Structure formats: structure tokens, C-alpha cells
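Sequence in, structure out. Go.
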Amino acid sequence: MDTLELLAHPVRLRIVHAMRGERILTTAELCARLPDVSKAMVYRHVDLLATGGILEVAEERRVRGAVERRYRLRQDRAVIDADMVKSLSADDHRRGFATAVAALVAEFNAYLDRDHADPVADLVGYRQHAVWLSREELGELIGGLRTAIVPVLANEPAPDRARYLLSPILFPIEEPPGPAEAD
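Output:
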């Protein structure tokens, strides 16, 4: 399987999210982080991600006669690069978007299913805004988002930090005006 195919499944995408931040986890620990997914499914998808090179074995140890593997995410393999994006068909984009949305919905449901979920106290947000932007303004907006997001991607776990899933979604919702309409 290629990277796109490996990441184009909601459970595998959620596993990748859970592994980010240089975490090293066993499959059992991943099961605990994805309580709404069956253990068999987590084990199957971890195996696919490891076989495909997205996850790698960081450590192995014997536990009661069995081998316990601890996995880490290969950041360099868990990306869809610009060249791959350029080669995608409209159907590939549909499938990728559907996967991202399915993973997002599953993560949100898992959050709400926690005993102490408190969307108000946790500052949960899911607003959508329709904005008018020129190509230049769009570039500035994307640059501003990158400027805000990239530094916090390097944050390490700390006692006062919680992990948040941030999913910027951006696409035009109308055709741009043609030359005659722009006048």
C-alpha cells in the first residue's frame, strides 16, 4: 500500500494522530486511546501501518512469554507531500476528505463519551465561516494560519497541557466570478 492508501482510512488516521508527538506506544496502549474501536481492528491497522512503514518498532520485550512491541510514528512517512497532492484525482480528494471528516467525527464522539467531557470548560469549537478572499488574501490567511500553528506543533507533553485536534478545512464554496462578472 502507498502512503495515501494507508492514511485514507479513519481508524489508521486516528492511530497516526494518537502516535504524533514522538510517542512510543504498544498496541494495547493505542486500544486504550481508541476505546470506541475494537481491539482486533486496532491490531489489524497497526500491523498495516507497520508493514507500510508509517509505524516502526521502537522496542521489543518479552511479557509473559509473548513479545510486546512498542511502536513509534515515522513522521517522514506519515505525510502526503505536495507532489502527491498534485497527482490526486477528484475522487482521491473526495476519499481523503471523507476519511478526514470520519476520523474527526469519531474523535469528537470519543471525546464526548468521556466521563468528564466538558465542551464549555475545554473551549471546544467547531465554527464555520464563509469569507470572501482574493487570491492574495487567501495566501495571507494561509500564511497566518501556518505562522500560528507551526510553532505549537513542536510542543512537548507537560502536566498543564492537553492534546487538542486542530483540523483547518479550507475550500472555495462558489465558482470565482468570470471576467465579465468581475466588472
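Check: Residues 60 and 89 are 40 Å apart (CA to CA). Strands lie at 24-26, 55-63, 66-73.
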